Amino acid sequence: FIAFGIALLLSICNALTFAELALSLPRQGSIGSYAEVTVGQFPAILAVFAGYVVPAIFGLSAELMLFDSVIGQLFPGLLPNMGWAVVLLATLVALNLAGTDVFATAQQLLTFVIIAFFLAAGLAAVSGPAAAGPAW
């Protein structure tokens, strides 16, 4: 719970900081425009890099570690540590280099599976035996 409290405090401070900046600069703003007004243009470029580019770079590694942890618990001992992450990353890289739009294909496949499941559940509910009422 301590980590949640610290994260809550940091989130509130972040929100209050942006609220104060939005009130003091009545134009559309971002990390770059706020930093440019306060510390100059070059530090603003660094702030944008630190605020947008770095999290985008490290976000993938965190997601791969989470994927490896979950699949490693489902299939223990099948691959070494971070093996599932390497397999997933290699698969996505190969599909990307082949020109396959992974996300559109996955979305279409998942949509088909969901619709098929709903149809099967609906048909089973309609054609199945009637449920017995309460025996009061």
TrEMBL record:
InterPro entries reported for this sequence: AA/rel_permease1 (IPR002293)
GO cellular component: membrane
Source organism, top-level taxon: Eukaryota
Record's keyword annotation contains Methyltransferase: no
GO MF annotation list: transmembrane transporter activity
Positions of transmembrane segments: 43-66, 78-97, 109-132
Membrane-topology descriptor: Multi-pass membrane protein
Broad class of the protein's primary localization: membrane
Pfam families from the UniProt entry: AA_permease_2 (PF13520)
Leader sequence segment: 1-19
Subcellular location: Membrane
UniProt keywords, alphabetically: Membrane, Signal, Transmembrane, Transmembrane helix
UniProt protein name: Uncharacterized protein
Species the sequence originates in: Micrurus corallinus
